[in-house]
Amino acid sequence: MSKQLDVLFIHPNAAEKIYQDLSRDFSAIEPPIWAALLANHVRAKGYSCAILDCEAERLSVAQALEAIHDRNPRLAAFIVYGQQPSASTQNMTGVSLLNNALKDTYPQYPTIAIGLYPSALPEKTLQDEKLDFVGQGEGAATLVGLCQIDDKGDHSRLRQVPGLWYRHDGAIVAAGPAHNIAQEMLPQELPGMAWDLLPMKKYRTSNWHAFTNNNQNMPFASLYTSLGCPFKCSFCCINAPFGGSSFRYWSPEFILGEFDKIADMGIINVKIADEMFVLNQNHFMKVCQLIAGRGHHFNIWAYARIDTVKEEYLETLKKAGVNWLALGIESGVKTVRADVIKGKFEDINIRDVVQKIREHGISVIGNFIFGLPEDTEETMRQTLDLALEMKCDMINFYSCMAYPGSALHHVALEQKWELPDTYAGYSQHAYETKPLPTKHISAREVLAFRDRAFTRYFSDPGYLAFVKEKFGQETFDNIAVMNSHKLRRAIVEKSAASALSV
């Protein structure tokens, strides 16, 4: 057993349950950004820590238990985020499995869950799980507060820890809110990622991101240059840890230092995980200018909105190595978009924006959602038709979920809509996936349409010809293999079985 650590940050492994067969070769294995940020925060305050990435290391529950016991932590911290903001809930699957086993086998280790889902539903998280603590908020002040307490059962000390939820005398106690770190304090309080604590050679990017890197999807790094989002889309839960809409960012000069470290590690594939990188011109343009000035050769993927991309930005983005922009298009129907506060884009020609991006050598991944509240079979078909017409280099087709922490989740609870009864039910790819019904069609119909649309898009002769010409035969073959994986869906299979029995 090792010398006792103050904090062991844990990223559990539930990839196979969440992504089914896609977990083997196609789903990304992404560095746990928040675990690495919080680890550096804890170290800066003088406490010892390590990161156990069970997904990257492909550890079973039994193997993870022994790795935790070997590190002998004073606090085992589950950091519950994911490859995108919506993934926090589905990653509670791994937290629950591993924490239950840990409490059964080594109950002496205090455990805490910090992240988007625990922040959105702190009381429910404690009610449902055998955790000792839940941290609501960013987690930095909560972790340091716990590190300062030797006796983790001292109620008089625990109630002074910002953002902490815990049990006392049979009741759940909320110690009080933790304030967000001020923007000017980000470099001191969250001084970059603890790259040295991560198994960097084991991370891989999404298969499509590697199309612009000779299909080499490893190694891979991801990082934030900003935190939060100022927009209020009803289906999004990104701001749950921050208590509301917000936007803070590290200085471009500080971010350049992080990119220098990535380059020194020989990593080309990079995801800028900001919810909206192309937003504040003074920030993202300066970041890109500094990266380009260094002469780094990255293959970068970043997020934007249709109405934040301006043609005058594109040359600088490309020079920095931004080869992919992920655009939140969501729906091809204005009234459906407007209903979820996404924005009407009334003065924006979606097709024109996509074309201009591609004219500058930047590939486009279009993100679309089927099953928004006002969707019908016809409006979903119009969204699919728009995707087929534009032939984005890649697409994500999602079914609408009421993610905990989103405004839509609050509406769902108020209206008593049927929600998933498992964490994996919030995954887009799991067998248990259960999206929302719309005002007009059932959840089963939404999910069945989404899966048919995915197959239709990646079987489209026009799209396949475009991909083969642009990216080559290997990418063409890669897409064929991806499209051959058919996801099993519980609600679709049960409906079919019921129909047969009738």
Give a quick summary of the entry:
This protein has helices at 15-19, 22-25, 33-44, 54-57, 61-71, 87-105, 116-120, 122-128, 140-147, 155-158, 186-189, 252-264, 281-294, 311-319, 334-339, 350-359, 377-390, 407-415, 443-459, 461-471, 473-484, 490-501, and strands at 7-11, 49-53, 76-80, 111-115, 133-135, 164-168, 171-174, 220-223, 226-227, 248-249, 269-272, 299-304, 322-330, 363-370, 394-399.
Written overview of the protein:
The protein is an alpha/beta fold and 502 residues long. It has 2 domains: 7-174, Cobalamin-binding domain (Rossmann fold, 3-Layer(aba) Sandwich); 204-400, tm_1862 like domain (pyruvate-formate lyase- activating enzyme). 42% of the residues lie in helices and 15% in strands. The protein has helices at 15-19, 22-25, 33-44, 54-57, 61-71, 87-105, 116-120, 122-128, 140-147, 155-158, 186-189, 252-264, 281-294, 311-319, 334-339, 350-359, 377-390, 407-415, 443-459, 461-471, 473-484, 490-501; strands spanning 7-11, 49-53, 76-80, 111-115, 133-135, 164-168, 171-174, 220-223, 226-227, 248-249, 269-272, 299-304, 322-330, 363-370, 394-399. Helix 12 (252-264) packs parallel to helix 13, helix 17 (377-390) runs parallel beside helix 19 (443-459) and helix 20 crosses helix 21.
Shape: globular
Q: In the CATH classification, which architecture of the largest domain applies? A: Alpha-Beta Horseshoe
Kindly name the structural category: alpha/beta
Q: Roughly how many Å is the radius of gyration?
A: 22 Å
Q: What level of helicity do the residues show?
A: 40-55%
CATH topology label of the largest domain: pyruvate-formate lyase- activating enzyme
